[in-house]
Amino acid sequence: MAGVVMAYVERCGKVWRARWLLADGRRYGSRSGFAVKWEAKHFADAREVAERAAAQAESVSGVTLGAWWERWLPAQDLAPATLENYAQQFRRHIAPRFATVAIGQITALDLAGFARGLRGRGLSPSSVSVVMSVLRDLLADAAADGMIAAAPAMPGRGRNRRGPGPGRAGRALELEAVLEVCARLAPQDALMVIVAAFTGMRWGEVCAMRCAFLHLPQADTGPGEGDAAWYEVDARIGAVHEDVHARRFFGPPKGGHGRTVDLPPFLAAALAGHIQATAGRELLFVNARGEPIRHSDWLARWHPACDGVTGRGRPARARTGPCPGARFHDLRHTHATMLAELAVPEALRDERLGHHPPGVRSLYTHTTSAMRAAMLSQLERRWIQVVARAGLDMERVFVDRGGDAVARYGSRSSGSSSARCGREAAAG
């Protein structure tokens, strides 16, 4: 009789009564007061369908979330990087709490307590949001598949909602502090920091930078447009990703869109010098084995430099760190803030950072070569000013392991000298 609706109606004085089979398969529910027969029948049919769905959900709700995860993940049609991220969030955060819990036993209170625990362990609001979104999708699809009658409500909605709390929000760093961090790092690491601070590129995008996508001024071009330098963030392999086993692979940047990042003259010169010092490499920044840099290895150098510990081979400096607790992603915030300070048009800011805002702004506002030229001039001037204010000898910071200068900075940095360095690298 499965699938057959057993609901019926009966006359009850001047009105009609709806009768439907309950989930236990033995008793009937009823409701009277319908003026016409078809209304009563429609109500009875709907209630019986709901009762059967609830009974089916109850029979399978004993399946654990871990077992459902094993079925659910292979069915997702997502990019490899997204699947790896989901797996990482489940393994690190969700599985220890819910893997052995039956889906039907997970309540809204459980989810609220879980989210609160994540915040208590120091996860940033954005990280908590990512973890909870994976859990939300798991439970929503379980409900859609009939595993449970309905997914429990997610926290963060309603009368008890609080602010994000003391999470690690992004921040803009002072450029003098950024230069101080560079002075504590090895030359390649210092250059990566400057690239991020003056382009807004993400960590994975900086790690994936390739010589083939770097366009430097050519030796046979005169002043003007031929002096332009830029980097192409490729839409297919423009970022390095890490899976749950810390294996690195190349894939699309966040959002799946490529973009062109214009380079100010001093940065073009720095990258040109870096290529000269590391001739023959496909990637601009690698580890000792010639592979993309592992994020955990980078953090082992980045945190001491920010928090006040000098790196090997660097002279001891003040014990107080230039920017304790800073993250590499804060360099992206730093660049976005710098662009706003320099009054760079919003359209160019969005283009440079790889943002795609909704609405008419992105449809009717476009960038021009004049906008880009003005921005690069301002970034070059900001670099010269901050180096002068910091009082650091950047020439000593940006040198290769052999001791030869990679690029000459400071008060002597200018568009012509930087472009000349770039042409020499291209010619070589």
TrEMBL record:
Top-level lineage group: Bacteria
Ranges where the Core-binding (CB) domain occurs: 63-143
UniProtKB keywords: DNA integration, DNA recombination, DNA-binding
Gene3D superfamilies: 1.10.150.130, Intergrase catalytic core
Stretch list, region Disordered: 409-428
Gene Ontology molecular function: DNA binding
InterPro entries xrefs: CB, DNA_brk_join_enz, Integrase-like_cat_sf, Integrase_catalytic, Integrase_recombinase_N, Integrase_SAM-like_N, Phage_Integrase
GO biological process assignments: DNA integration; DNA recombination
Record-annotated Tyr recombinase domain positions: 164-377
Family membership noted in the UniProt record: Belongs to the 'phage' integrase family.
Protein name in UniProt: Tyrosine-type recombinase/integrase
Species annotation: Actinospica durhamensis
